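BUG: 3D viewer hangs when loading the predicted structure for this chain

Environment: internal workstation, default settings.
Expected: structure renders.
Actual: progress bar stalls at 90%.

Input used:
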Amino acid sequence: MTRYFIYISYDGTAYHGWQIQPNGDSVQQKLQWALSTLLREDISVTGAGRTDAGVHARMMVAHFDVEHALDGVQLAYRLNKILPRDISVSRVVPVDGEMHARFSATSRTYHYYIHTRKDPFLRHYSCELHYPLDFRRMNEAASRLLEYDDFGAFCKSHADVKTTLCKVTEAKWVQMDDDSWYFRITANRFLRNMVRAVVGTLVEVGRGRMSESEFCRVIEGKQRTEAGESMPGHALFLEHVGYDNL
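Structure tokens produced before the viewer hung:
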């Protein structure tokens, strides 16, 4: 049996997230169908994580197992021929059988995009906000995320998780132009809805509705009801999944 990592990107607009759903299209479903069709056997893929409905990925990694060796370059080419236009495969590579797309990942990076001036070309991939935001204060608050390891305050209510512990190693707002910014956050793992809840809470800081110390108290309180609203999913991108020795 040989294990392969497959690197894909996708526009999540038309999908109910990464994970297979009983009542809607998912990226995992489309990928499994394409692999099973080309390899003429039932293929199951395991992703590095789950993205919610409407969330995009510039880089998602998944693994699958087959009994025979594959030409990764040729398989990627053939997959791109039959996959929908909003899903693409960049490479398929053999890995050690102990490697796991989810559990072997050491880091994940997300970007959340916002813009402050109406722009018809950004509306599908960035969140339009029209109130003044103090990004200096938002960055000061964001830096405090690196001081904590329990992010229950930003976890979707009633989520089925064994732990709310995460190690955040990077959290900052980056300006692209006068009207566009993105929030970059890297951690070893993320809770469901965590990034969008963090951004929503930092927006409260930027609007002057929450101080930096209050932001810290929200984290320490571990109560989702105390944090800000979850931001819309269409502006969130999974940017990178990192592995040691790959």
